[in-house]
Amino acid sequence: MKLIPLALGLSLFPASLALAASQTGYSQQDSTASVSTTLQALEEAQSKKNAQEWGLTVEEWQRYQDLIEGRRGILSPGLDPVTTLGIEARTAEERRRYAELSVKQDFQRAESELAFQREVNAAWQRIYPDILPIQTAGNTLAQGKGRLALFVRTDCKPCESKVAALLASQRPLDIYLVGSDGKDEVVRAWAKKQAIPADRVRAKTVTLNHDRGQWLKFGQGRMPVVLQQGERGWQITAF
Q1: Which pTM does this prediction carry?
Q2: Within 10 A of 234 (CB to CB), how many other CB atoms are there?
Q3: Less Cβ around it within 10 Å: N or C end of the chain?
């Protein structure tokens, strides 16, 4: 058996290390490139999904991303993509497109919410026919065109007279109980004491609501107070 001279063996050892290191380097580079490619593919897929959800192209979605990372994102945080693009439209044609897209999406949203609300109303009648539904989510004031909003307290005699007068008027009415602490039983007990017609509550011509700070915002410290939506938003009315 032939023996490799020691000197030759030692000279080959660094070369083998260099080759291994070179191969390891290529392996790390390939791994990094593979991860980068995968991340890019995931980002592109997510951008495409987001764009489709809002009825936009990928290019429009990217422009929206650029806008919210800049001045518009600071001025109007949380603004939806279609409205953002519409406000920052570069041409009249773009502005019209985003306006029409916004109207279509709002219509679809409203139809879906109304359909679900009808099912919720029906569910209340099936499951809890003797319990008045209380509005605990959303803000009736935001959707109250043509309706009156009445703010009352439980320990308020003038409030009782105002409630009776407004019920007799047959006007659509949203009643907000200030100081209910979000407790449905407090609102129901008050409504029962005031003889609020249950059928009108179930039909949504009268709604019972927890006050979520709207009285402080619109009521100007008056109690009771009736609000009606006008050209300048919600204003106190002398009804």
Answers
A1: 0.49
A2: 17
A3: N
